[in-house]
User: Fold Tetratricopeptide repeat protein from Myroides pelagicus.
Amino acid sequence: MFKFQFYIIFVFSVFSCFSAIGQDIDDVYRIEHYKFICPSEDVSIHELYDIGIRALNSDEHTSLAGKAFYQIIQKDKHLCDAYFFTGVALTRQDKHKAAVSYYYYADSLANGISDKFKEELAESALRVSNIGLARKKYEELVITFPEKPSGYYGIGLTSTSIGDYELGISNLILAEEKYIQNNTWTLQRKSEVNLIRGILYTQLQQYKNAVESFELSEEMFGELTDYLANYAWSTYNLFLLTRKNQYKEQCINTLIKLKNRKEIKQDFLDKFQFSE
Assistant:
């Protein structure tokens, strides 16, 4: 039986539309409000933090921010917050490989007590296709911060690549519960969760559940290649199972949108055969 292969571009497509999990890289930081995980009594270090954090909030001065945080690291290599902010500065400059290293040091030096550091490390790992590292950090989040939805969400997200689809579904159910409990079940979150569910259900050949999930995420993700490819495959299989024309029409309309997309290969399109 043909096994539908979705595209790993999904992970990055979500991030290009939203900061789907932890920190929004456009967060505004205030030194007077920031709670340091690895504090220092050194006045000169506090001055550098002040310079760096102020610069971090300006797109024009992101590079200056990175230099300030790097100076802090040179003064004291045990200050996890300096590594974290260096990672933020590098992320805002699209230097994602370097950012992973600094987030990793931040998480390690913090001894795992910061959910923020773990979330950012996981998210940065996804940006460089290190799915294994991302999954590891999401699992740690579930263990260390079980009340937070991000770990469960991340396991669901990485399941699309790792292949443990049922585990992904069960974790997305938990993520939804946590979002609702935390009063953060927004339209964005609902759309993200249902998009991932739709892809996982497609892989599990639970096509009716897949279509229902996709339709709940259509408003935000209806033009995404992974949405369209998985939706087309699910509606096609529902048509084969039920012979209902509504599924045939939905599939054909979706294939029209996919036809000229460079990510879609002809051998995938050739799988769709509508014999009378």
